[in-house]
Design goal:
The complex is a heterodimer of chains A (109) and B (115).
Chain A: E1 4-7, E2 10-14, E3 19-25, E4 29-37, E5 43-49, E6 52-56, E7 59-64, E8 69-74, E9 83-91, E10 97-99, E11 103-108
Parallel strand pairs in A: 2-11
Antiparallel strand pairs in A: 1-3, 3-8, 4-5, 4-9, 6-7, 7-8, 9-10, 9-11
Chain B: E1 5-7, E2 10-13, E3 19-24, E4 31-37, E5 43-50, E6 53-56, E7 65-68, E8 75-79, E9 88-95, E10 105-106, E11 110-114
Parallel strand pairs in B: 2-11
Antiparallel strand pairs in B: 1-3, 3-8, 4-5, 4-9, 5-6, 7-8, 9-10, 9-11
The chains are: A mainly beta (109), B mainly beta (115).
């Protein structure tokens, strides 16, 4: 079993729709990151969370430490949001990050 | 601040050749992490280095792979005698200190293709 599970694996949305991507993890963490990877591109860190909620533009990330769950929301989605979104957790022991397998989002105009 | 720089962006090697991937961390960052992303798979940790020290190489294959982060210059991930299964995207990340989640920054990756 992976330490980090994401859902859905693939997501297609119409432009303007509200999108939610979920992440559950099984290890103790010091922080959780949401990452964005465009096709053939590098990885960009969107958020780092250790509690509560963060907002940046149309993106909102929440985390529930007790339930070991985080969500990434995109409001008023746009085709340029099409990318793979990866949940990563920094374990509170050792030096590693654990990564989900990613959610591939396609936003159709 | 140019961020984490990886080069080359794309690297093609024939089976049996050596691949050298370079990562220059962000200015002020002394901790470097290497990750591998195999096709259709998620990112996997390979190795964590500080200047002149390997701290954790638990994710790195025991043979053919090595990593260094010298006092001067970039971190190098070296793959000897490459095989087709080494074809992947290799990402480097850096942070200012151990366990620091702030300023943790990824590079754009090196895509290695073994033909």
């Amino acid at each position: 079993k992976n330490e980090v599970e994401q859902s859905p694996q693939n997501l297609t949305a119409q432009e303007g729709e509200f999108i939610t991507i979920n992440c559950s993890y099984s290890v103790g963490i010091s922080a959780l990151h949401w990452l964005q990877q465009h096709p053939g591109g590098g990885i960009v860190s969107l958020f780092m969370l250790s509690s509560g909620k963060k907002k940046h533009g149309r993106l909102i990330a929440t985390i529930n430490i007790q339930e070991k769950h985080s969500s990434l929301h995109i409001t008023a989605s746009h085709p340029r949001d099409s990318a793979v979104y990866i949940c990563a957790v920094a374990a509170n022991t050792g030096n590693q990050f654990y990564f989900g397998t990613g959610t591939s989002l396609t936003v159709i105009p | 601040n140019a961020g984490v720089m990886q080069n080359p962006r794309h690297l093609v090697r024939r089976r049996g050749q050596e691949a050298r991937l370079r990562c220059s961390p962000m200015k002020g960052h002394s901790h470097v992490y290497w990750y591998r992303q195999l096709p259709e798979e998620g990112l996997k940790f390979m190795v964590y280095l500080q200047k002149e020290n390997i701290i954790d190489e638990s994710g790195m294959p025991k043979e053919r792979f090595s990593a260094e982060f010298p006092k001067e210059g970039p971190s190098i991930l070296r793959i000897q005698q490459v095989v087709r299964g080494d074809s992947a995207a290799y990402f480097c990340a850096s942070s200012p200190s151990q366990g620091s989640n702030y300023g943790y920054t990824f590079g754009s990756g090196t895509r290695l293709t073994v033909v």
